[in-house]
């Protein structure tokens, strides 16, 4: 079973993604509501993939800094990170995300098929029973 960490401060969005990804029984979701908790869970849970919101609220480090810290840590640097963001109109964000080590960039609102396809491309084979 593929373990996916989702770092997202909006509980409704996190729950929707959890339902989508766990319904097939091939993925297990772990959720963090802020960057600091996400970093700790990434180190302890050893996920196969991280989904990361870029805007994590006023009391958290943002997704850009969270990703920088994930990539700086030898224990988590090889885990692929997909940015999930509302920055749909900013094409330069997509390019910047790739330059900063994000494996993929998906804009909100995202569609079910796209999310499953992108996630599947990074955890293929790890979801097999």
What name does CATH use for the topology?
Answer: Rossmann fold
The string of secondary-structure elements, in order, is EHEHEHEHEH
Helix-strand makeup class: alpha/beta
Please compute the radius of gyration using only Cα atoms: 13 Å
The percent range for helix content is: 40-55%
Total E-strand runs? 5
How many structurally independent domains?
1
Q: What proportion strand? A: 15-25%
**Major sheet characteristics:** 5 strands, parallel
Which strand order does the major sheet show? 2-1-3-4-5
Mean pLDDT equals: 89
General shape: globular
CATH superfamily: Response regulator
CATH architecture: 3-Layer(aba) Sandwich
Distance between the termini: 6 Å
Instruction: Kindly provide the name of the CATH class.
Output: Alpha Beta
Task: Give a structural overview.
The chain contains five helices and five strands. A five-stranded parallel beta sheet has the order 2-1-3-4-5, sandwiched between helices. It has 129 residues and is of the alpha/beta class. 42% of the residues lie in helices and 20% in strands.
């Amino acid at each position: 079973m593929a373990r996916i960490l989702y770092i997202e401060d909006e509980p409704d969005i996190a729950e929707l993604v959890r339902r989508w990804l766990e319904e097939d029984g091939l993925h297990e979701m772990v959720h963090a509501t802020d960057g600091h908790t996400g970093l700790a869970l990434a180190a302890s849970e050893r996920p196969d993939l991280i989904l990361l919101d870029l805007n994590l609220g006023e009391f958290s480090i943002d997704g850009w800094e969270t990703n920088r810290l994930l990539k700086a840590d030898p224990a988590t640097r090889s885990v692929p990170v997909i940015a999930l963001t509302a920055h749909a109109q900013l094409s330069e964000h997509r390019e910047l995300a790739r330059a900063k080590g994000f494996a993929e960039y998906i804009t909100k609102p995202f569609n079910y098929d796209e999310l499953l396809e992108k996630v599947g491309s990074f955890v293929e084979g790890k979801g097999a029973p």
